[in-house]
Specification:
44% helix; 7-stranded parallel sheet; alpha/beta
Length: 345
C-alpha cells in the first residue's frame, strides 16, 4: 500500500514509518522538522528511514513542509494517491501548552483540518490519527475506557486532541470518511523525545544530576513500549473503520457511531508506579538517582491505566514488551547514540 505518515521525523512516526517500510509498503513521510526539540535527533531518524528504503523492500519519499500550510497538504494528496493516511504529527507536550497555546492551534487544529479536507476530497479509504490519554482529564475511574465520556480536559493540549476526535466524527458522519482515533498512553523507547521523563531521567542519572520527581513519585502511568505502539497503529490502519450496527442515538457510545468512526485506547494495560519506573532506569544505568521530590505540576493527571479490550478484540493488539525490558533497551540506545555523537564531533 501507499501510506502517508505525518510526523515521520517524530518519535512514533519514525517507528511506524520504519515498520511499514520493512514490510514493503510505499511510505510518504510528511514533517516540518520544527525546533520544539533537538532537530539533529529528527534528522538522524530520517537518515535511518532513507537507509531502510535503500536496503529493504519498501519505498520512501519525504516531504518537508508544514501541515498547517493547506497548499502543501493539497499538493501531497494531488501527487500521491494514498491507500491509508496515518496522521501522527502534532504539537505534543503538556507543559508547553500552558505557555504556547497558539502552537497547538496551528499544529493540532489547523493542520488536522487540512488533513481531513484532503482526505475527504481524495476519497481516502481510511484515516488513522493520534489522540492521547490526556483527554481523560479529570476522570478518575480506572481503567480508562473509551466508552465513557471525556469532557473535562486539564490542559489545552488535551483539549485540542479531544477536538480532533470530534472533528473526525463530523467528517465521518458528513462525508463517510472512515476514521480511527488512537489514544496513546505514555509511549517510551529508543529514539524517544528528549522532553519525556525516561530521556530526562536517564540523562540526569548518567550525569550525576538530581532528577525532578513530581507528585512526590506517587504517579502511576501505563508506560507503553514504542514497538508495541507502532504495531498497534499499523493494525488499526489496515482495518478500515466501519459503522457500528448496534449504535443507538438514545444511548450513544462515545467510542463508535452509526458513521464509520471509532476510538481506541492503545496502551500497555499494566500501569507502573513512577518510583518503580525510576528503579528500572537505575538498574539499567547501574547507578542510583538523586531525587528531588516536588508537588504535582499544573495540568498533570495523577494516574493512567488503559483498558485495551476493544483494540485487542478488533485488531488483535497485544503489547508484548515488559517495562524493565523496554527501559533497558532505551538506556542501551541512549548510551550508544550519544557516545557515537561524542566520538564523531
Amino acid at each position: 500500500m501507499k501510506v502517508l505518515v505525518t510526523g515521520a521525523a517524530g518519535f512514533i512516526g519514525f517507528h511506524t514509518a520504519k515498520r511499514l517500510l520493512e514490510r514493503g509498503d510505499e511510505v510518504v513521510g510528511f514533517d516540518v522538522v520544527n525546533t520544539y526539540y533537538d532537530v539533529s535527533l529528527k534528522e538522524a531518524r530520517l537518515r535511518i528511514l532513507d537507509e531502510a528504503a535503500r536496503h529493504g523492500p519498501g519505498r520512501w519519499t519525504f516531504i518537508r513542509a508544514d501541515l498547517a500550510d493547506q497548499r502543501a497538504v493539497d499538493a501531497a494528496f494531488t501527487t500521491h494517491g494514498f491507500d491509508r493516511v496515518i496522521h501522527l504529527a502534532a504539537q505534543a507536550g503538556v507543559r508547553h501548552s500552558l505557555t504556547h497555546p497558539h502552537d497547538y492551534v496551528q499544529s493540532n487544529i489547523v493542520a488536522f483540518t487540512n488533513i481531513l479536507e484532503a482526505c475527504r476530497h481524495a476519497a481516502t479509504p481510511h484515516l488513522t490519527y493520534a489522540s492521547t490519554s490526556s483527554v481523560y482529564g479529570a476522570n478518575t475511574r480506572m481503567p480508562f475506557s473509551e466508552h465513557r465520556g471525556v469532557d473535562h480536559p486539564l490542559q489545552f493540549y488535551a483539549a485540542t486532541k479531544r477536538a480532533n476526535e470530534l472533528m473526525a466524527h463530523a467528517y465521518s458522519h458528513l462525508f463517510g470518511l472512515p476514521t480511527t482515533g488512537l489514544r496513546f498512553f505514555t509511549v517510551y523507547g529508543p529514539w524517544g523525545r528528549p522532553d519525556m521523563a525516561l530521556f530526562l531521567f536517564t540523562k540526569s542519572i548518567l550525569a550525576g544530576a538530581p532528577i525532578k520527581v513530581f507528585n512526590h513519585g506517587n504517579h502511576t502511568r501505563d508506560f507503553t513500549y514504542v514497538a508495541d505502539i507502532a504495531e498497534g497503529v499499523i493494525r488499526a490502519s489496515d482495518q478500515i473503520a466501519a459503522p457500528n450496527p448496534d449504535w443507538s442515538s438514545d444511548d450513544p457510545d462515545p467510542a463508535s457511531s452509526n458513521a464509520p468512526f471509532r476510538l481506541f485506547n492503545i496502551g500497555n494495560n499494566q500501569p507502573v508506579k513512577l518510583m518503580e519506573y525510576i528503579e528500572a532506569i537505575e538498574d539499567a544505568v547501574g547507578k542510583k538517582a538523586a531525587k528531588e521530590l516536588l508537588p504535582m505540576q499544573p495540568g498533570d493527571i495523577p494516574d493512567t491505566y488503559a483498558d485495551v479490550t476493544e483494540l485487542s478484540k478488533t485488531v488483535g493488539y497485544k503489547p508484548a514488551t515488559p517495562t524493565r525490558e523496554g527501559v533497558a533497551t532505551f538506556v542501551r540506545w541512549y548510551q550508544s547514540y550519544y557516545n557515537d555523537l561524542i566520538f564523531t564531533q
